[in-house]
Amino acid sequence: MLIKKIGNLSSLIITKSPIIINLVHRNQNNQYYLRNIRTLSNNSSHSFNSRIRNNKNANGGKVRYNNTSSQGQQQTPPKNVKIEETIRDRYAVGPATWKSLLLFLVTGAGLFFYFKHEKKKILEKRKEELANKSVGKAKIGGPFELINQDGKLVTDKDFLGKFLLVYFGFTHCPDICPEELDKMSKVTDIINNNEQIGSGKVIIPIFISCDPERDSVEVVRKYLEDFHKDMVGLTGSHEQVSKVAKSYRVYYSKPPKLQPGEEYLVDHSIFFYLMNPDGEFVDAFGKNLDAEQISSSIDKHVQDFLKKGGVIKT
Amino acid sequence: MSSSTSTQSIPPLRSQRNLCWKLRDDYFECLENITPLINNSNNGDKLIIDPISVQNDEKIQELVKRFNCWKKKEEYEKSCMTSWVEYFNKRRHLELKQRELLNK
């Protein structure tokens, strides 16, 4: 039924289209004929037609219709050929046949399912990538080489296997650094007491001086005595400090034109940087967050890390 | 403690820091308390009594002395590093300015 409807529609389009009207002719048996283009220019009023379908007759030979008469008279072909071709033509619904329609549907369905399958594959791949991607696409952190409060040269590799909470400050800081370092001590205790992994040490607090001219190893060691016993203090040469500050995108600046011995304060950005046991940046916490907020956020990151198969050194 | 001339400047440790902060807060509180007293007894001109104006204005210094906050000022400046005093004073000045803006 549907096929017949499509056929009727297509035949409607064909008959109504002005171009087609001149080229395609329908005879009294509702069969379509394509006008012989060769004769069109000479006498378009003549209904000199040739068949769309093959011109074979019952014997297999070609049947050619010569219309010598004028004005609408048509030579009727032999009856058996006519019947055979009529039957064949009846199954040709407009320009479509069963075969071509079937081929069309099969191809269409094939393409549809193929694209659906490919799209699904791509979506899955993307989901997998997102899940596996480590948190912290920001390029913060990187290799460093500094001197700790015991005078030992340490690099970033020495801290792999544990989470790190890094804070940049200076010992002559009026009140912000001490407050932040106290906060860091609190966070360290909360995290290390929560996560029961081996010896219990999940996170190490690190203080990096951005005032190496005044913050020698001695000064840093004395300074740290007031804070968490696990806190690591790092200092170094001007170049070493400048390099690590750059890799952490830390802003810091001394006042210009300083007299020797003159007091000064270092202006610097105030953040805690959380690094995971693989040395990758995870998150940054601003001054506005308190110890509880930071701890719960770090807790979540630690869980995420362990879930993805990360290992914390014991 | 209030200034250092050596290249190896030792920063104040926790106890010293805490003392400095306490004296700072005492001094600032004193100034805040005497501000309404001073402004009420004035001819209507509202003076801003903050650490910066105290430093710069002699007239205000006289008032502060009269209302017994001068001693606190001296104690505060003695126990904190010079750079810290400057920093705290500037911050207090900004804080009071903001408060005034908000109250308007």
UniProtKB/TrEMBL annotation, chain A:
Gene3D superfamilies the record matches: Glutaredoxin
Instruction: Quote the record's binding site residues for Cu cation.
Output: C173, C177, H268
Entry's Gene Ontology BP terms: intracellular copper ion homeostasis; mitochondrial respiratory chain complex IV assembly
Q: Which organism is it from?
A: Glomus cerebriforme
Q: Where in the cell is it found?
A: Mitochondrion inner membrane
Secretion signal, residue range per the UniProt entry: none
Which residue intervals make up region (Disordered)? 44-79
Any one GO MF annotation of this record: copper ion binding
Put simply, this protein is called Putative mitochondrial metallochaperone Sco1
Into which family does the record put it? Belongs to the SCO1/2 family.
**Composition-biased stretches (Polar residues):** 44-58, 65-78
| Cysteine disulfide partners in this protein | C173-C177
InterPro entries referenced in this protein's UniProt entry, alphabetically: SCO1/SenC (IPR003782), Synth_of_cyt-c-oxidase_Sco1/2 (IPR017276), Thioredoxin-like_sf (IPR036249)
GO CC annotations on file:
mitochondrial inner membrane
TrEMBL record, chain B:
The answer to whether keyword Transferase applies is no
Source domain of life is Eukaryota
Gene3D superfamilies attached here? Answer: Cytochrome c oxidase, subunit VIb
Entries under Pfam families matching the protein: COX6B
What are the UniProt keywords, alphabetically? Disulfide bond, Mitochondrion
Coiled coil start-end: none
Q: Give me the Gene Ontology terms describing cellular component.
A: mitochondrion
Q: What is its main location?
A: mitochondrion
Write down the InterPro entries for this protein, in alphabetical order.
COA6_fun (IPR048281), COX6B-like (IPR048280), CX6/COA6-like_sf (IPR036549)
| Location of the protein in the cell | Mitochondrion
Family per record? Belongs to the cytochrome c oxidase subunit 6B family.
Return the protein name.
Cytochrome c oxidase, subunit VIb
| Species this chain originates from | Glomus cerebriforme
Taxonomic lineage per UniProt?
Eukaryota, Fungi, Fungi incertae sedis, Mucoromycota, Glomeromycotina
